[in-house]
Amino acid sequence: MKPKKGMLLASETLKIIIGVICIGFLVYLLMSLYYSKIDGQNKEYAQSLIDRINAILPTLNSEKPTESITDINPAGWYIYSFVEGEKKPNQCIDKSCVCICDDVYEFEFLFSDKQIKECSENGVCQIVTNLMKFEPIEIVKHSKGATSIELFVQGNFVGVRKK
Questions:
Q1: For the chain, how long is the longest CA-to-CA vector?
Q2: Is 81 within 8 Å of 159 (Cβ atoms)?
Q3: What three-state secondary structure class fits 148?
Q4: Residue 92: per-residue pLDDT
């Protein structure tokens, strides 16, 4: 009786396919763990920046109208303003606030609340009374020149600008 070579080939092919699927699953698992750790660190950096902003705001007055914050993190995230009359993240309902969260690419007419949802779920926000609206500020990597911001008082309003 002759051995069937086709059966051996099918058996080896099945083992290779199962091996590739297992390796793919392991790569996915490792990447998930890595990105969850990075996201956790970024949220801690964002909370630290919000705490720094919160500590500076009460010290601003007519005698000391500006204060700078240098070398801010997390790189790649943005600082947003949400003021009265706009849709806001959950933490800021009925108040003006500053939020630090990752940027989400969105189509204005399709998913206009995607950025607000990102800031609500994965960002950090701080209520700021009398906040002036400002354009989103990107926090760039240190290798590209560290981002610095300036908090300032103008009349009764508080503003944030890139320095």
A1: 101
A2: no
A3: coil
A4: 83
Which positions ≥6 away from 52 have C-beta within 8 Å? 69
DSSP 36-100: HHHHHHHHHHHHHHHHHHHHHGGG-SSSS-EEEE-S-S-TTEEEEEE-TTS---GGGTTS-EEEE
First to last CA, the chain: 84
Query: Residues 37-52: what's their mean pLDDT?
Result: 85
Instruction: Tell me the three state secondary structure of residue 21.
Output: helix
Q: Let me know: does 153 contact 65? Beta carbons within 8 Å.
A: yes
Stretch 96-115: mean pLDDT: 74
Q: Are 137 and 147 in contact, with CB atoms under 8 Å apart?
A: yes
Query: Under a CB-based contact definition with an 8 Å cutoff, are residues 158 and 125 in contact?
Result: no
pLDDT score at 74: 86
Quickly count: other Cβ atoms within 10 Å of residue 37's Cβ.
Answer: 10
Task: Summarize pLDDT for 137-150 with one digit per residue, the tens.
Answer: 888 876 666 788 88
Q: What is the mean pLDDT of the chain?
A: 82
Distances (CA, A) of 94 to 58, 88, 90, 91, 99: 21, 8, 10, 9, 15
In this prediction the pTM is 0.73
d(CA 135, CA 144): 20
Q: Is the pLDDT of residue 1 over 60?
A: no
